[in-house]
Amino acid sequence: MVADGNPVGEALHDAVNAGVDVIITSGGTGISPTDTTPEHTVAVLDYVIPGLADAIRRSGLPKVPTSVLSRGVCGVAGRTLIINLPGSPGGVRDGLGVLADVLDHALEQIAGGDHPR
Prior knowledge:
Blueprint: H1 6-17, E1 22-26, H2 37-44, E2 47-48, H3 50-60, E3 74-77, E4 80-85, H4 89-110
Parallel strand pairs: 1-4
Antiparallel strand pairs: 2-3, 3-4
GO molecular function: molybdopterin adenylyltransferase activity
EC number: 2.7.7.75
Protein name: Molybdopterin biosynthesis protein
């Protein structure tokens, strides 16, 4: 656990350099001036996975209309999948529900796996 701001970026760099498979952040994805997790995440990413971030936002929409204000991003840095989840318990629960359906496949693809032919 780290504080908002620069410590997020430092922790992301450290975890990617350590070769972890998945990093899940929670919080700092809103639109307030102190919500900078997406900026720190994008700074380390090689590429984004916009559909995953969209699915996470969409998962909360039926219960929390303001979920569309989340700026969380998802993407890959090296061979590490990075996912920004909202800071609320419900947002984390919804986001993990989305990940439960796609995480294994995403990690296989990042590791160089191919689709069955």
